[in-house]
Amino acid sequence: MTPRGDTASFLNALRDPKRAKRLLGAIKELTAEPVAIMEVCGGHTRTIVRYGLEQLLPKEISFLHGPGCPVCVTPRERVDMAVALAQKRGLVLATLGDMLRVPGSSGSLLQARASGCDIRVVYSPLDVLALAKQNPKKTVVFFAIGFETTAPTTAALLERCLMEGIQNVKVLVNHVLVAPAIEALLKEDGSRIDAFIAPGHVCTITGTAPFEPLASSYQKPFVVSGFEPWDILLGLHNLLGMIANKETGVKIAYTRAVLPQGNPKALSFIERFFDVRESFRWRGLGNIPKSALRLKHEFSAFDAEKAYAGVFSSDSKPDPEACLCGEVLKGNAKPSECGLFGQACTPQDPVGACMVSSEGACGIYFRYKGRVPA
Ligand code: SF4
């Protein structure tokens, strides 16, 4: 049952210790064997660690943190492309705040800004419209990252540019698709994922369709969950029930936000403006076929990758050898297993992308790990 009422009582219900205790009791009854559950979203990881849920659950249940942080999975070469664009005269680079501090091969966007590049932080792609109007003699390039959740907002920016006849906007598209990344993890030798807490925000857009074929091909249960502690426990309870009954498939425990068919309007925006790339490199996961979006040919006037092809270099450096971001993103290592964690690598001075964002597992461990359950 989803709690209802005003915002405060609604949130209190989702964080109510008594309700959580009842659900924990039911989870304990369903836990027989060790089970490894991947929570795909960084938002889920944050709730699990922040509220100390692992410490409350039976020791047989372990969480594998997944590749669901968009800042973390954007690889170095794409950061390098953004830095190269920012260094062009007459160009304004616009991006979301977290991308500023992600290290590239020769520095971050923050360092590029300190050296004089015109880099602006936006809170929504639509803020780029105002920037373009304020800077009519410059080209404003939006460094677009994120999963299916944010791709429709980039599409909405392009739609507004078309409607208003704005011609000084381009987009460096780095939108990625979650299901192919999950499939890549399932195909890995020795994959030990038993079940998935499927990404709640992505599923508000896509519905369950991208995950159904994975559930049936790999015989795994998926439950779409929300982001409050009670949501995670409810998703976990559903998953354990499915495991006990040897059920596979995709269930929705986040019914207050997710419909099986997703959001048709947002999906139609994605379909109108984007094609699926043949292949795209993810940080840590390497090249994954059909795992990202690019602008359709008919919208290539907006495509920064095409307009500035000569600016990009192909000699990006890999992540430092000691950085375990790749293994963290695959759920193979916990942040605290990295020798740099909390010493050479901190949120103030990150070595790897997973320490930068509020959805990155390393940043989450740094801020919250070891908290007493609330
Ligand atoms: S602690 Fe830093 S260097 Fe280590 S895996 Fe995390 S982000 Fe990478």
**Which molecules are bound in this entry?**
iron/sulfur cluster
Main beta sheet: 5 strands, parallel
CATH topology of the largest domain: Rossmann fold
CATH architecture descriptor text of the largest domain:
3-Layer(aba) Sandwich
State the strand order across the main sheet: 2-1-7-8-9
Report how far apart the termini are.
22 Å
Estimated share of beta-strand residues: 15-25%
Q: Report the radius of gyration as a whole number of Å.
A: 21 Å
CATH superfamily of the largest domain: HypD, alpha/beta domain 2
What class would the helix/strand composition place it in?
alpha/beta
Q: Give the low-confidence spans.
A: none
Name the helix and strand elements from N-terminus to C-terminus, one letter apiece: HHEHHEHHEHEHEHEHEHHEHEHEEEEHHH
Task: For the structure shown, list the relevant keywords.
single chain; 374 residues; alpha/beta; Rossmann fold; 17 helices; 39% helix; globular; binds iron/sulfur cluster
